[in-house]
Amino acid sequence: MEAVPARARGYVAGVALLALLCVLPLPVTRAPWWAIGLLAALYAACEHVVRRRPGGTFYPVLLAGAFLLPPPAAAFVPLPAALFVPAGRGPGPARRVWRAARPSLAVFGAARVHWALGGPDAVVAPDFPHALLPAGAAVLAFCLILTALDGGLLAAAGQAPAHRAWRGLLSRSLAPVAVHGLAGLMMAVLWRSPYGPVAALLVLPPMCVSWWAFDQYHRERAAHQATIRALVQAVDIKDGYTRGHSERVGHASVMIARELGMDDERVEVLRFAGILHDVGKLGVPTRLLRKDGPLTPEERRIIELHPEYGHEMVRGISFLGEARAAILHHHERLDGSGYPYGLAGGQIPECARIVAVADAFDAMTSTRSYSRARPPEAAMAELERCAGAQFDPRMVTALGRALRRWGCPRASGAAGGPGAYPAVTADEPAYRTPPGEPVPSTGAPR
After folding, report:
1. Residues 198 and 225 grouped into a single domain
2. Does residue 17 lie in a domain region?
3. Same domain for 279 and 181?
């Protein structure tokens, strides 16, 4: 555990101690050891399969244990998997301890809730719906404990501020765990039926098929991410300014989209749009992208082709959806003075208006060869001044609310630390428009 921060080591050790206390009463329980062993072996086998995909989880057997066994016995079921299934990448001891303690505590809590509500009797009752209430409460307890533990680890490891560490964890896990809980309940009912454990095993094949389909979706999504990373890295190599800029614009675009109440699918598309908005720079000569002085009119016309280059590059990537329109139109202006087509007002796609604001904000708050960074407050004031003519006021207002709530967009590996904004000295202006550039706020079309 030496590679884990000290606070996280202490946190994991505390969770492990709690899990050990949950399992200690196991010898005095009257649960049959063959049932405990069979469920533990099934869970270990399932973990061996799903852990081939990082982050894979498969809880039906674990939740069946919560519905069938006393709490200490249910808490024992995940332990053999943690001991014998390969831990994958990362610090082995810390990963194994965490993988043992986390599900052990969660299934212990679920079993306690299930038993307190009379769940074991409901499982064997002939009227099956009576089993749903205690099982549903147990699944909810299971999710709540996992959420509490995961958020605590994020905060202890410094991966998220304490006030944001738990945000969204429960909502993301509740639906898939509920499906696993229903499968676990089916296993428990069949296990207690006259057909016995063999019948319970018949629940696993369809669940494995559904997990496989879900895994394929995640693999496809990972391939999408790899495509985007390759494109962004190519632009970063060509134009040093974009290193971190694309990631921050993607983050800011997500912040705006969430403030506007967009659904998760559109938010993801806006993230793609922000990250890839400058991919067309691959078609612009490097000498122009790295030029320190003013651009000639001819050079400017060449640079202003980069949205069209970018759109042409990503036109065949179907999963980008409306992000392709954002790449093409993110330099359009509400008053029609932008490029490449001089669209105005509602003619500009909504996604492009979002990326335009995110791009302008990061351009003003980043140090470039011809300008120093503005403080975020000054950049927002400039965006508000240009709202209605250059930028959509709705997007500017949404970004302002998001910044007050979440802080500035951050990019990993940025100079000065994640999300760092260079200080402005008293004797140097916060922003200097490059010679020959008419844009008063965003600092350039490049």
Report:
1. no
2. yes
3. no
181's tokens: 């809980």
Give the torsion sign (CA, 287, 289, 291, 294).
Answer: positive
End of a domain among 202, 234, 257? 202
Which pair of structure tokens corresponds to residue 17? 């101690």
Give the pLDDT of the chain (446 residues) as one tens digit per residue. Answer: 446 678 888 999 999 999 999 999 998 888 889 999 999 998 888 877 766 554 457 788 999 999 999 999 999 999 988 877 665 555 468 778 888 999 999 999 999 999 999 887 777 765 667 778 899 999 999 999 999 999 999 888 887 778 778 888 888 888 888 888 888 888 888 888 888 888 888 887 777 777 676 667 667 777 777 877 787 777 777 766 666 788 899 999 999 999 999 988 899 899 999 989 988 988 888 888 777 778 888 988 998 999 999 999 888 887 888 899 999 999 999 999 999 999 999 999 999 999 999 999 998 888 765 567 788 899 999 999 999 999 999 999 999 999 988 887 765 433 333 333 332 222 222 323 332 333 334 444 44
CA 47 to mean position of chain CA atoms: 23
Cβ atoms of 156 and 5 within 8 Å: the answer is: yes
CATH number, domain containing residue 391: 1.10.3210.10
**Which residue has 């500017």 as its token pair?**
396
Rounded Cα distance, 233 and 299, in Å: 24
Residues 225 and 351 in one domain: yes
Q: Are residues 95 and 180 in the same domain?
A: yes
Q: Which two tokens stand for residue 77?
A: 């079921």
Q: Print burial letters for 399-422: b (CB count within 10 Å at least 16), e (below 16).
A: bbebbeebebbbbeebeeeebebe
Which of 170, 202, 234 is where one domain is finished? 202
| Parent domain of 239 | 221-406
The structure tokens listed for 423 are: 């200080």
In a domain, residue 114? The reply is yes
**What's the CATH number where 24 sits?**
1.10.1760
Q: Which helix (H) or strand (E) holds 285?
A: none
Long-range contacts of 247-251 (CB under 8 A, 24+ apart): 247/275, 247/411, 247/412, 248/362, 248/366, 248/409, 248/410, 248/411, 248/414, 248/419, 249/274, 249/275, 249/277, 249/355, 249/358, 249/359, 249/362, 249/409, 250/274, 250/275, 250/358, 251/409, 251/410, 251/411
Q: What's the domain count of the chain?
A: 2
| 375 occurs within a structural domain | yes
**Chain-centre distance of CA 284, in angstroms?**
32
**Are residue 166 and residue 311 in the same domain, yes or no?**
no
Assess whether 232 and 160 both reside in one domain: no
